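Hi there,

I know you've been waiting on this one. I reran it after we fixed the sequence typo, so this is the corrected version. Both the input and the resulting structure follow.
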Amino acid sequence: MDSVKYRAPDAAKTGLKRRTVLKGLGAVATLPTGVWAATSAVIASRTFSTPRHTTRYLECGPVDGPLMIFLHGWPELSLIWRAQMEALASDGWRCIAPDMRGYGGSSAPAALDAYTNEQVVRDMAELHDHFGGKPAIWVGHDWGSVIAASLVAHEPARSRGVVLISVSYFADANALPTLVALIDRTIYPANEYPDGQWDYYRYYTTHFEAAVSDLDADKAASLASIYRSGDPTSMGKPSANALVTRKGGRFGEAHRAPPMKPDPALWPGADFDALVEAFDAHGFRPPCAWYLNDAANIAYARRAPNGGQILKPVMFVNGEYDQINTINGNRYGDPMRAACTDLTIVNLLGAHWLPLERKRELVQAIRTWLQDKNLSATRP
């Protein structure tokens, strides 16, 4: 196993700006070159449908380039990958980023059990077939990391390698029984925090309608409150997510997010507006339903060949300031280390939203790993 640490430069202080047209979305964003990758790639919005599912996706890069497919998590959208797609498209990759099931322009079934990992992996397999089915590099963040790893574990022929960001791989599924067993009890004593930082996850399973209602009360404020940069002083202390049940919800007695502006260092204005518009269409119910299928997800994980072991090259990108998911100083990375035979771990000085918070550093980490593993776009 390789371990690499990229030290991020100070916050981007830029004055130059450029304009990139996002075809199909009707959005024109003014992007600081020091924050977003300095490329001229044009991202197109398209739709692919089968009898069982519709996927809206973003695409850029040469149509004859090797595939790199980016999978977002909660509560995100394909647009979270804009910086990485533009940069890697300039390297020759054909970059694809779908809106996952329940998000954006993709299908959002009403049934809560429609959001199992198995169903979403099938969505991605169909999309992959649409692009010819040649082995791809899969890149996932948060729940997208769960799906990317699950797909590679179940159907390894679809992959040349996989990049997992913020959420590590669990061969027995990313589920409460798996996560709670690994809680760092020096931070979360069992008598005070039985579910540790995963209390918010438990709250979905016990108070789902209330959790969704609170998030939907002011969708823009909810999203702005969720997307915040990392705070190194928070590490080693209980996360606010460990207090959701005792507060009676994520936002406590108010049952709605406090008024808050989005952080422009994470989301450019036009892209954040597109994110809010997408959540206005479906609300938080479909995305939050992903948390309600632990039993089905565990059963599916246990059907993977070789006990879920991944033999393809894997890079895990860890946020050093991620109170929920960091693998530093605890046992959360142990199942991934056991299940991945060719694992590289990279640490970035950010929290959970690394595709936004550490745009350039994440691109560089992916480029370096691709080169080290002889997976570059120019490889014959």
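Quick highlight: DSSP finds 14 helices and eleven strands in the chain.

Best,
R. S.
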